[in-house]
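Thread: Newbie trying to understand structure tokens

Hi all, I'm a second-year student working on a class project, and my supervisor (Dr. K.) asked me to get a predicted structure for one chain before our next meeting. I've only ever worked with sequences, so writing a 3D structure as a token string is new to me. If someone could post the tokens and maybe explain what I'm looking at, I'd be very grateful. Here's the chain:
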Amino acid sequence: MQLRFHPENAYPMTTDSGRVLVAAKSMALFEMDAVCEAVLHYAQVRPTCSLEQLTAALADRFSAEEVAETVREFVRLHIFETDAPVPAASIPELDVTQFPVSSVVVNVANKCNLHCTYCYEPDEAKYGPTPVQMDWPTAQASVDFLFQKSGQSREVNLIFFGGEALLNFKLMRQVVAYAEQKAQTEDKVVDFSITTNGTLLTDGVIDFFQDHRFGVTISIDGPPDLHDKRRSFLTAGGQRKGSYQVLAPRLERLFARYTARPVVARVTVTKDAIDIMRTYEHLTGLGFFEVGFSPVTATNGTDYGLEPADLHEVLAGFRQLGSLYVERAVAGRYTGFSNLSTLLTDIHVGTNKFFPCGAGLGLLDVDGNGDVYLCHRFPGSEEHHYGNVKDGLDYDRLNAFVNKAHLGNKTVCQTCWVRGLCGGGCYHEAMTQFGDALHPNLHYCDFLRAWTEYGIGVYMELQRKTPGFVEQYVLRGRGDAPKELT
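---
Reply by user tm_fold:
Sure, no problem. This is what the structure looks like when written as tokens:
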């Protein structure tokens, strides 16, 4: 039997708990034994060989059956290819009409009361003479669109976004009342969530969130000195004024009054504002259940974009916080570091993605005019415009994009061992960085591989030191947390 080694499907790594093999084709993890190590080492030196040659080379240490058993497993995991006929690999043609749209982001207000320096939306759209405010007929049509496209999905999700969504709170109240009535009529459950800068929170708004069990995500970048670097008001005289002092008392009221669900912080990490541990401790000290860190989306040359050295600093901060995560886990305590919890969840359930996210496959965005886009970051991009909630969805265009976006079409990704967790990377990030939403996020590859390797090490350590922790705390904790936009 002839064997051909596929190194892109085998990534061996060393953790504190021992040697682990990542079978990249399926993203499965295996603890490596001596025969596995030996077979893999031989294959790395001689990528093409016969089973007889391999067995003879290892005969002084392992029986023929031990070698054959490992080879069979490697063939099953696509680490070895044999000379037996194998059907040609093909990328399946997807039909998006077969994927129910269970989540819709509604941009109820394009305008924003903050002037964050890193915002990806153009200033004209937010601060021009006529920023779009969604009206009731459009909002009603958006809810109808969601229920119509949700198919047999019993739970549907309405995610309020902007701009700053609370600038159109009156419409939000109408939307929630209508969606709840429609859900009752159609025997569905509707879940509401919002991402907000928090500066417009009032007791009335908070109580409304409580009454309708909103998932609440607050955009906040850390303690005052870090938050105010990029998240500011613009005075009438054109001067920037930090927003933290306005936000802080409103957060205090939020945590005092809101108990329906845990509240999540979303941190945008920018250059010269990287202090992961201090930011985490500050935000959880305020009362946030989970904190998620998102490297800023930026074109080359911006003063806030992250360069490789900055990403190295972010990774160091993630590892420091990860050590605290493990320390607390051993003591039976959950740490709300959503980046690590998400990674541990993916590792545990065996996530193996062909797309980076659900955009176009279960999630769509509706702007203030009712136009449908790939996700909440694309309004205004004609290239990623797929119809209108009043006129219908352009399935042909959406189908064309989704099928091109399949990971199998990204040649450079096929040799990367984390491709099943990455899926090629964020579409909007790719468009910003490379001018093409279908381009792999190559500028984040080294960061993502290092972070994933660290996460696997944490997972193995938790499995050894505190068996059952992931099932009891991480999976349940994330299930109870609000649905985040990332």
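A couple of things are worth pointing out once you decode it. Residues 308-330 form the longest helix (23 residues). The first strand starts at residue 2 and ends at 5. Feel free to ask follow-ups in this thread.
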